[in-house]
Amino acid sequence: MARSTAEVVAVVVAVAVVAAMARPAAGQGAAPAGSPAPPYKNHTVAGADGWFFNATTNTTSGNYSDWAAGETFYLGDYLIFKTDDSSSVVQTSNATAYTLCDAEGPETLIYSPGRGDAASSHAATIAVPLTVEGANYFFSDAGDGAQCEDGMRFEIKVAHGRGLPPDLAHPPPAPKPRVLAPPPDGTSLNPGVAGAGAGAAGDLTEGKSGGSRACVAWLGILS
C-alpha cells in the first residue's frame, strides 16, 4: 500500500492520558441518583490478550471483534491498548479508511509508540479517549496495513452516555514551542527549536492527507 511521506504530528496532552489512568474501576463512581448514564470507564482492549501481532505466524494475540461485541462504550470512556512498539493504534470514524486499512485517510489519528523490530520491541500502554459518538474504527497500520489485513482491527459504537467530561470537551491548548538560546560564541553548535513544552509529545504540522499522527502517545515504555 502506497503511503504519503507527509504526516501530521498531533500533540498528545499529558493531562488527558493521566485522566484516563485515574478513572475509577467499573462499579466505582456510580452515576447520580436518577441518571441512566453509567460512570466513565476504561476498557482494556482484548483484556489479558492485549494488542500484539506475531510476525512469524501473522496472527493477532486476541479476537478484537469478539471482544468489542461484549462491551458497551460511551463518550468519555477510554480504550487502553496494552501493546509494544511493533504495532500502532489508528482511530478513525471513516468507514472507507477502515475497510482499506488506510491510515492516510481523513478523520484519522495514529497513536504510535515507535517502529521497533521484533527483536527489540518494548512494551507500551496507549490510552485513546472516545470523543466521537457513533461508529469508531480501530486498527494497526504497521507493515503498511498488513497487520490490519490480518485481523488487527475492530469497530465499536459509542453511545452518548453522560457526554464528554470537561477535560475532553474542553482540552487545554497545546503549549507553544520553546526556542533554544543561541550557543556561545566560538562553538560549532547551531541554534534549534526544542520540542513542545512540558505536557506535550510533539509539534503540529500539516500534511496532505488530512489525517493525524500522534507520535510518542504511550503512557509508559517498559524495558
UniProtKB/TrEMBL annotation:
KW Signal (keyword) present: yes
Keyword field: Signal
N-terminal signal peptide: 1-27
GO cellular component: plasma membrane
MF term (GO), any: electron transfer activity
Lineage, opening ranks: Eukaryota, Viridiplantae, Streptophyta, Embryophyta, Tracheophyta
Region listing for Disordered, in residue ranges: 163-211
Family matches, as PROSITE patterns: PHYTOCYANIN
InterPro entries: Cupredoxin, Phytocyanin-like, Phytocyanin_dom
Record-given protein name: Phytocyanin domain-containing protein
The Phytocyanin domain, residue ranges: 41-160
Feature: compositional bias, Pro residues: 168-185
Keyword Signal recorded: yes
